[in-house]
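batch job 7 of whatever, protein = Glycosidase CRH2
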Amino acid sequence: MNKLLYLAAATSAFVAAALAATKCTTASAPCSREGYCNSGPSFCMWGLCNVQNSYNSTSCWNAEGCSSQTVTFDSSADAIAINSYTGNPNTNPYVSIFEPNNAVVENGNLVLQMTYDASQKKGFGATVDSSHTIQYGTVTARIKTASIAKGVVSAFIIRNDQLGDEIDFEWVGKEPTQVETNFFYHDELVYTNSVYYPVGGDSSADYHDYTIVWDPDYVTWMIDNKAIRTLKREDTYDSSAKVYKFPAAEGRIGFSIWDGGNSGAKGTEDWAGTPTPWTSNTVYKMYVDSVTVKCTGTDIAPSDSSAGASSSASTDNPDNDNSDSSDSNNDNSNASGSSSDNDTSDTSATSIGASADNTSTGSKTDTGASSGSETDTETSTNTAAGNSSNGGSGSSSTGDSDGESSSTAISSPGKCHVVAVTQVVPV
Ligand SMILES: *[C@@H]1O[C@H](CO)[C@@H](O)[C@H](O)[C@H]1NC(C)=O
Ligand SMILES: *[C@@H]1O[C@H](CO)[C@@H](O)[C@H](O)[C@H]1NC(C)=O
Ligand SMILES: *[C@@H]1O[C@H](CO)[C@@H](O)[C@H](O)[C@H]1NC(C)=O
Ligand SMILES: *[C@@H]1O[C@H](CO)[C@@H](O)[C@H](O)[C@H]1NC(C)=O
Ligand SMILES: *[C@@H]1O[C@H](CO)[C@@H](O)[C@H](O)[C@H]1NC(C)=O
């Protein structure tokens, strides 16, 4: 439910200079993603960027770290297109990583849209990732899904793109009253990891709170504050491999909508329902009303930046400090966690020192370094822009194989990714 597919955005000058390479050898295109090299957030953001294959050890941006906060999508800055992102997670807590961007902030919601791409004969969706990272904590997203027609897939996940650890809520259009809970360790497909539960109504008719409680020892999925499933780490032990196959790697929170019904892969189509009904002006929409993150451990204090107008500290924050005076030292130097300010009136957005680029906690492991995952090796074999097979290990049949040869869609059950590449030069 998570494999990467690839997108070639024919019009994106932003990426026109991307070069296919196993290893990036020029300082001007230092960041490696899916076998291509370029600069900019699409290629350099932590998690998207492959450290090993990048120009040098500092080419990829560092992980931003976790921030306990609620984002309510009242400001357009709360989610922006990746090619507008300058690397300040406090200003832009969510980033739409598809090109062209099909996500908007509207009426207090993050709205992920899917429209029809006639050239591909299928929907073109959206994927929005948190610009902060998380490694354990609780994430609640208030969501109204796009399950109004078969084939339409909505997803809320936490994922490490390089390692393939992932925790999922997914909704398939053919089952509007159900939600699928799932998890992955290193992108390994284990069919029994997936369990469906009733939402308690039509997930596309009403908002519900979907919560992932992610602890080093367990994951609990909740709907409207009621636990529906707990996965214990101890129950994921693989005795032959001698490893706990439990999602543990730092990742990003992600939301996506994509067309499973016209994916061209039978397993995916059976899983999502098929065909997805389209007219030329159909728009499917997934609504995210708010996202609340409570970090475990190191917590970068959310800043009161411009986006802070809609990003307040989480409610259980002991330091609910509304005094303006104490807010002037609003920087990221205090990573001790509990000191998040709750002051949306602060206008000192520009004082957020280090945040113009990568605000690292310094305590995070850059899991990207360990990748070498199949998604990378695979794309390096692409011979044409966007002609990718599915992201690597996904030769599986159920809901996971995409086998796309399209030049546009990157979508995967659970995750959509863009590596917008034009004029690529094969290795
Ligand atoms: C990586 O390359 C950049 C650009 O040339 C350079 O500024 C930086 O010092 C290099 N870092 C390392 C660790 O070599
Ligand atoms: C932040 O302060 C406002 C105003 O005092 C208060 O209404 C709100 O509950 C506080 N939020 C949190 C998360 O403490
Ligand atoms: C960081 O925040 C904690 C908790 O509010 C506080 O005790 C500590 O003094 C702060 N440290 C710095 C460097 O501001
Ligand atoms: C990213 O963070 C590293 C380590 O903190 C720092 O050395 C580097 O200069 C930062 N990069 C940018 C672009 O700010
Ligand atoms: C993708 O590559 C395969 C193998 O080279 C080729 O047969 C197919 O036509 C290509 N598809 C596209 C859309 O370019």
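notes: Residues 266-272 form the longest helix (7 residues).
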